[in-house]
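Long-time lurker, first post. I've been practising inverse folding by hand and with some scripts of my own, and I keep getting stuck on stretches where the structure tokens seem ambiguous. Below is the full token string for one chain I'm working on. Before anyone asks, I'm not after the true native sequence, just a reasonable design that respects the backbone. If someone could post their per-position residues I'd love to compare against what I wrote down in my notebook.
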């Protein structure tokens, strides 16, 4: 439901690169972590070619109560895993805005 509302808010289709993962598949990925929110069905990686659309997606996600964001060059990770620290951003290479910065994108 949250992803549908984000899509409606941004006004363009969202391409999901990764959603739910089995533990075996998650373990096969080079940069995955064992406690990934993906194995709980609580995360999605959304394609953002050349970073296009990241600000719009983040702003819409914040409105949906999503507060964990990973920034990649060509994707953005969103998750709602309440067992992990909220209000956080991290990167997979490149510049990463702080959570304080992204709150201003709404």
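-- Answer (accepted) --
I ran through it position by position. Result:
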């Amino acid at each position: 439901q949250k992803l549908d509302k984000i899509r409606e808010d941004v006004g363009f289709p969202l391409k999901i690169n990764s959603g739910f993962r089995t533990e075996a598949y998650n373990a096969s990925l080079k940069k995955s972590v064992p406690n990934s929110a993906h194995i709980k069905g609580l995360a999605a990686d959304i394609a953002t070619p050349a970073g296009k659309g990241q600000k719009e997606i983040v702003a819409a996600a914040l409105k949906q109560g999503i507060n964990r964001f990973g920034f990649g060059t060509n994707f953005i990770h969103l998750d709602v895993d309440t067992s992990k620290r909220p209000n956080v951003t991290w990167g997979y290479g490149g510049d990463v805005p702080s959570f304080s910065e992204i709150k201003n994108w709404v």
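A couple of notes from the structure itself: DSSP finds four helices and five strands in the chain. Residues 72 and 92 are 5 Å apart (CA to CA). Happy to go over any region you disagree with.
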